[in-house]
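User: SLAM family member 8. Structure?
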Amino acid sequence: MVMRSLWSLLLWKALLPAVAAGAQVLSKVGGSVLLMAEHSPGFHVREAIWLSLWPSEELLATFFRGSLETLYHSRFLGRVQLHSNLSLELGPLETGDSGNFSVLMVDTEGRARTQTLQLKVYDAVPRPVVQVFIAAAGVAQSPKTCQVFLSCWAPNISDITYSWRRQGTVDLGAEPHSLFTDGQVLSVSLGPGDKSVSYSCIVSNPVSWDLATVTPWESCSHEAAPGKTSYKDMLLVVVPLSLLLTLVGLFSAWHWGPCSAKKKKDIRADREPPETESPLVQDLP
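Assistant: Predicted structure:
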């Protein structure tokens, strides 16, 4: 009896016209989602069938005359629960679970209703990484200001957006030219009054978000502290010294290369015995 009902439902599905993707449902990897089966109050469901439509059509759950069944061989086996209101719960979700799902319902009067839902599964956003880069001081720049570039990056994540927030404000309110590469890089000019001001990079997708906060003035080094050396002072010493050592090495290779070859040639010549002339032997007539 159950098999005959199932075949009748599949026949109903084959005869019904194609249904466009309906409402979109969003969730994240590791979570669960509830796909709601909606019908009018006067629609008394007698039989129902849930299908996954991508990448191939798979039977997930059925309802026949009060009996719920979810033990069908599919990629969701063990991760499916059919509730009494015929809504389908999936979880824990995986990255490849995105796709279209449909439910076919038949009421006690033989009327059929098909509903299609689109599920989109996102990865949870990890904590971003913010780096601070100091711009070289320009001619027109005040000696008491520091121009910095804040770079924000979230690893191995797609479909994300970047935004920035200054401490004590709801939004950054930065000019458009202050943002680069789709909001990943922010350029700000800091003064002595901004020593304790922090900036937060907010990374988000439709289902999750995270942020990282930095105080960029700490990276500004207009003057090295007593007893400490700034990275600029280190570069002024290390770079010329490296160039000097490289030039000395090249000069040594150029100078000693020919001399060494000549010396080896002289030693080899001293060790070889002098050649003696072989007497000519003439045949007697």
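The radius of gyration is 38 Å. The first helix runs from residue 2 to 15.
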